[in-house]
Amino acid sequence: MTARVEHTDVGAYALGLLEDDDRRAFEEHLAHCRPCVTELSELSGVAQALTGLGPLEDEPPRGEEPAEVIDLLRRKQAADRRSRRGTFLVGVAAAVTLVAGGLVAGAQFGGGSPAAPVASPHDGIGPAERFYAAGTPVEGVGSGGVTGGLVLESKGWGTHAALKLAGVKGPLECALVAVSRDGDRRIMMGWAVPPAGYGVPGSPGPLYVHGASALPLDRIDHFEVVTTEGATLLTVKV
Question: Is residue 12 within 8 Å of 18, Cβ to Cβ?
Answer without folding.
Answer: yes
